[in-house]
Amino acid sequence: MEKFKTEFKWAGIFIAVMLLWMLGERIAGLHSTNLEYHPVVTMFFMIPAFAVYILALRDKKNKDLGGQMNFKQGFMSGFLISIVITILSPLTQWVISNLITPEFFPNVIEYALETGYYDNREAAEAYFSYKNYAVQSTIWALVSGVLTSAIVALFVRSKVLREPVELVE
User: Fold this and answer.
1) Angle in degrees, CA 139, 129, 126, rounded to 5
2) CB 60: neighbour CB atoms within 10 A?
3) CB-hemisphere CA count at 13 Å for 69?
4) Domain limits of the chain?
5) Model confidence at 163, in pLDDT bands (50, 70, 90)?
6) Whole-structure pTM value
7) 66 burial class (0-12, 13-18, 19+ CB within 10 angstroms)?
8) pLDDT at 103
9) Mean pLDDT of 31-54
10) Could you give the residue ranges of the DSSP H alpha helices within the chain?
11) Distance of CA 162 to CAs 158, 159, 165, 166, Å?
12) Residue 107 CB: number of other CB atoms within 10 A?
């Protein structure tokens, strides 16, 4: 487990950043009075998410791998971070739904009905529920984490310089 200390640390940092983002959304009224902006603003979370993965893989490269990291090492480190985040996603969603913003689901259900996004309460309640969001966040954590890991690993990996090859005549 000591070998993966960096990945566990950065998974925790990622979750903390996500919880702070959700708290910021709530404070900004994106879970209540400004629900119409919520889908767009939430997408901006990709910026801090990528930043955390960049910092994580740079940390892994510099502190654990002596400044040299190939794509596979970077990807596997990011993949492990993603697995930890994925495993903790239902708990993270529970914290968001019950502690940070318990009014989100009732508010978004009413908003969806008022705007015609859903025409019946049962459908809206089924979609905007902890259970559905826990499943979605778990799947999304794995898929987006794997993609982010691959992209970031491409940029953070060490560039291998080959010695010039002499042509023999």
Assistant:
1) 100
2) 25
3) 26
4) 2-156
5) low
6) 0.89
7) exposed
8) 97
9) 96
10) 5-27, 38-43, 46-59, 71-95, 104-115, 121-127, 130-156
11) 12, 10, 8, 12
12) 17
